[in-house]
């Protein structure tokens, strides 16, 4: 099994020593596993659907071309001006 090391300040080390019956390696190992599992869940929830992203990008480009290749701000401004006249 690989070995990793961590640094803690003196006060924390003293407090750990007072609780010497606790297996600190196991505590740290469990916490590392917990953090990894949480991060993996976040990744799965936030997984990107590249097919949908590509489709949205294509629709956006088609919209861009359909309105004369103008920036969205320009198109919105034109629509507002038409409605206010």
TrEMBL record:
This is VapB-type antitoxin. It comes from Stygiolobus caldivivus.
